[in-house]
């Protein structure tokens, strides 16, 4: 088939509601004009998050497109083990320089980390197909071969592990030469390492952010605090900055999740529950007795069929990452205030917020609501935070720590200043793995310069 240009099969992805999984949103891969059912079946079994499903849809779609125009190049026995090598290199380095892009893939180069994530997903899905549907001896170029048969076929000929797909190659030119002889699919390893300086929110701007950034311009001269300030977003910011919450986590807070600390009546005790598995007590409307259920069930039965925000899409969506839960019976974690004054401030503002600001919304248990009386999603808070940052003369840039995630990074820096040990830091930041906190506790360049610059070694300096 040398010189023959095959027709590219296009794929696209859409978000649909899966009736099999209580109408939860899921990614659907469309190949040509038909949905790829096997990938949907895979998602139903694995129950991934929507963001994880996007990775699988992206790489499986690209692999099917790539097979449609380049698969025929590897049908000879001597070349079959090189197919994953070629696909991985096209994915990593792009296809614009590939024979003037006769295949019309038009892929741009991808970062090494992104490429690894995609290939890992492809290998995992391919192995699942092989285990579920067994091996196939169908010729992958046969006109009746399904996409599933093709993926299983090529995975059988390319049994490398993910780690083998990315090892020991110096540069792209050398990898091309080696790929003719080597079975293993190798990829350039990026040897450049950068010092990861902390992306923490600058401490000198914290007060300005809270009391100038979140001011309501229309009511800036109003003596009523709940009118003058955006209490909702100040409360969320306090939880992220002084309580180490990810920006999406406080959005799952319900009005009944904030208590007065039994050990200090001036301090707020905040428990953030798992959005679907978190426990909730309710009074049975028929018997009057108190019962417990999970939040997904409560929302469906008593809140007009609503779903946890982790399963919503668009501006209502708020993600949830695996957390170290401190209250097993509640499926919740406690917020540990790094400064108790922040916990006291939170309790005072919380009472004002509930009394004067939060709209009365039947069947809406979430604490933080929009003006339209809908639960606040991550995008809504992120937009408000960016506006607050700009209002105090800063730019919301991740590398400067002036995004919502910079608040959690600041908490990690305070742990360093307090010389908090790794285990306590893990619990305080509710990490499943103690090493996960290291990215938040990186040194600042100024700290390195100050520490190593205090040593006097040169005693005698000649005059010039």
Automatic annotation (TrEMBL):
* Domain of life of the organism encoding this protein: Bacteria
Keyword Calcium in record: no
Q: Name one GO biological process term.
A: DNA recombination
The record's section on InterPro entries has: DNA_brk_join_enz (IPR011010), Integrase-like_cat_sf (IPR013762), Tyrosine_recombinase_XerCD (IPR050090)
Q: Which UniProt keywords apply?
A: DNA integration, DNA recombination, DNA-binding
Similarity annotation = Belongs to the 'phage' integrase family.
UniProt-recorded name of the protein: Site-specific recombinase, phage integrase family
């Amino acid at each position: 088939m040398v010189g023959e240009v095959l027709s590219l099969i296009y794929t696209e992805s859409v978000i649909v509601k899966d009736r099999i999984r209580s109408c939860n949103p899921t990614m659907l891969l469309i190949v040509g004009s038909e949905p790829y059912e096997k990938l949907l079946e895979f998602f139903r079994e694995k129950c991934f998050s929507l963001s994880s499903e996007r990775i699988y849809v992206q790489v499986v779609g690209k692999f099917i497109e790539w097979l449609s125009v380049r698969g025929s190049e590897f049908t000879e026995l001597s070349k079959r083990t090189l197919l994953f090598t070629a696909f991985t290199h096209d994915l990593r380095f792009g296809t614009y320089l590939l024979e003037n892009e006769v295949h019309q893939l038009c892929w741009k180069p991808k970062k090494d980390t992104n490429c690894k994530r995609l290939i890992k997903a492809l290998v995992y899905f391919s192995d699942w197909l092989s285990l579920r549907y067994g091996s196939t001896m169908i010729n992958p170029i046969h006109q009746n071969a399904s996409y599933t048969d093709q993926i299983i076929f090529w995975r059988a000929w390319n049994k490398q592990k993910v780690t083998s797909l990315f090892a020991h190659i110096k540069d792209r030119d050398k990898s091309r030469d080696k790929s003719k002889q080597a079975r293993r699919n190798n990829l350039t390893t990026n040897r450049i390492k950068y010092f990861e300086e902390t992306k923490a929110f600058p401490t000198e701007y914290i007060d300005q952010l809270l009391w100038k950034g979140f001011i309501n311009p229309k009511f800036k001269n109003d003596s009523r605090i709940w009118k003058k300030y955006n209490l909702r977003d100040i409360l969320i910011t306090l939880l992220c900055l002084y309580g180490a919450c990810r920006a999406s986590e406080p959005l799952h807070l319900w009005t009944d999740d904030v208590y007065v600390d039994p050990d200090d009546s001036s301090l707020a005790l905040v428990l953030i529950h798992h959005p679907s598995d978190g426990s909730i007590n309710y009074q049975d409307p028929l018997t009057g007795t108190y019962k417990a259920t999970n939040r997904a069930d409560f929302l469906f039965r008593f809140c007009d069929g609503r779903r946890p925000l982790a399963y919503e899409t668009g501006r209502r969506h708020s993600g949830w990452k695996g957390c170290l839960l401190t209250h097993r019976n509640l499926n919740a974690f406690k917020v540990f205030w790094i400064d108790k004054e922040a916990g006291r401030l939170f309790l005072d503002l919380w009472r004002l917020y509930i009394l004067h600001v939060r709209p009365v919304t039947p069947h809406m248990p979430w604490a933080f609501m929009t003006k339209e009386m809908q639960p606040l999603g991550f995008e809504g808070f992120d937009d408000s935070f960016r506006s607050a940052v700009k209002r105090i003369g800063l730019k919301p840039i991740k590398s400067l720590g002036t995004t919502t995630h910079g608040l959690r990074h600041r908490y990690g820096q305070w742990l360093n200043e307090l010389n908090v040990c790794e285990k306590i830091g893990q619990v305080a930041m509710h990490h499943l793995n103690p090493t996960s906190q290291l990215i938040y506790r990186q040194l600042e360049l100024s700290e390195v310069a100050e520490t190593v610059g205090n040593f006097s070694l040169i005693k005698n300096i000649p005059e010039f």
